[in-house]
Amino acid sequence: MALRSLEGRVLAVAPWLFGLSLLGHLAMVAFQTKMTMVDLMVYRNASPELFTGQLYDWRLKEFSDQFALPFTYPPFSALVFVPLSWVPWGVARWFWQLVSLACLWFLTRKSLELVGSRDPRRALLWTALFIWVEPVRTTLNYGQINLVLAALLLGTLVSARSWAQGAGVGVAAGLKLTPAISGLYFLVTRQYRAAAWSVVAFAATVGIGWAVSPALSRQYWFHLLGDAERVGPVGSAINQSLRGALSRTLGHDVQTGPVFLAGAVVAAVLAGFALHAAVGARDALAMIVAVQFLGLLVSPISWSHHWVWAVPAILWLVHGTTHRLAKVTAVAWLAAIGSYLISVLLMAQESIWIIPRPWHLAALGWVYPAVGLLTLVTVAVALRSRERVEDRVDLLRQ
Q: How far apart are CA 235 and CA 352, in angstroms?
């Protein structure tokens, strides 16, 4: 594979490339170049409102002229972020940047380990590259939680202890709901004890939040949950879910109607084929990527920075299989997230709230969902092909 060949040529200088990449990013943090970290500001500034009862009425008006940002996570999440409100903003932003970078490195290293590569230079090389791809870059710029959650999930899902597996998923879901899709991994691998632990851990987060603020918990779980419009503009180019892509194509919010359901069924069927093949191949990383991509596709809102799962996906495509289609899909992902196309589309759209747009902008707005669906197809095809080859080898040995 050409990507592997190119990688091999630069492995020797990987530590230097990592150092330069890290220094470049830290310089941006120091000089606040496009580093508003607006989402971290929401987490930090809104969290004390947990104790005033105004958590879900609070809005951040700075840096958001078209949409004053609300706190959209469960009460337990606000409780976790409260300590950040105890330190100066400068300390909070540096702390979060360093934690996010550590999580990116862990996500990269763990993904490589799962495909059988333990060369530390390879982890440094890919981390140096991933710092600058769009989902990671915007996560760092916004001060988002995506890298932290992805590292938590990947690290615990492959743990040998069922309680740790379940706790990781349950706590992640308690922080931001959408990681709950990870429970599907336990079901397809028949790890029912881990699934039970995930339910217990999630229930504990809900219980803690309820104990701290019963009123806010009732408001969130019985009134605000499922309100996609409160989270943000469904039709904006930054929403790279199927619902966002379909809405931009048709010129109106498809909501959860027949069009969306048809798209969700397609995604679920492709994910099913991918998971069936991955389970048969006992490929943990392929299973995890398939589950996470299904969640990103069918979620009402999947901002472009939520697609940090492209990181382990690319590493699996490059190192987890030798199938020709994987090469095409890996290049497609690198082009999609390395071109900053979503940022271009954001500047090209008239408003984050106006869904209709020229056909070419609507078509380009399919980039992440399209390559995500292609990845599911690739996992299914590549692992089925591997299984057939292994069967032939077994027959020859007999």
A: 7
CA angle 141, 143, 147 (to 5 degrees): 100
Measured distance CA(248)–CA(84) in Å, rounded: 37
Q: What is the pLDDT of residue 62?
A: 75
DSSP secondary structure, 245-289, as one string: HHHHHHTS--TTSHHHHHHHHHHHHHHHHHHHHHHHHT-HHHHHH
Q: Give me the residues paired with residue 59 across strands.
A: 70
Q: Tens digits of per-residue pLDDT, 281-334?
A: 999 999 999 999 999 999 999 999 999 999 999 999 999 999 999 999 999 999
Which token pair is 106? Answer: 């862990």
As a whole number, mean pLDDT of residues 129-146 equals 97
Q: Which amino acid is at 68?
A: A
In angstroms, the CA 14 to CA 372 distance is: 28
Neighbouring residues of 3: CB distance < 8 A, sequence distance ≥ 6: 318, 327, 330, 331
- Residues 151 and 103: beta-carbon distance below 8 Å: yes
Nearest to 247 by CA among 373, 372, 361: 361
**Tens-place pLDDT, residues 244-283:** 999 999 999 999 999 999 999 999 999 999 999 999 999 9
Facing residues of 69 across strands?
A: 60
Question: In angstroms, rounded to a whole number, what is the distance separating the alpha carbons of residues 35 and 247?
Answer: 30
CA distances from 142 to 69, 134, 294, 322, 373 (A): 12, 12, 24, 36, 26
d(CA 172, CA 40): 17
Give the Cα separation of 49 and 16 in Å (integer).
44
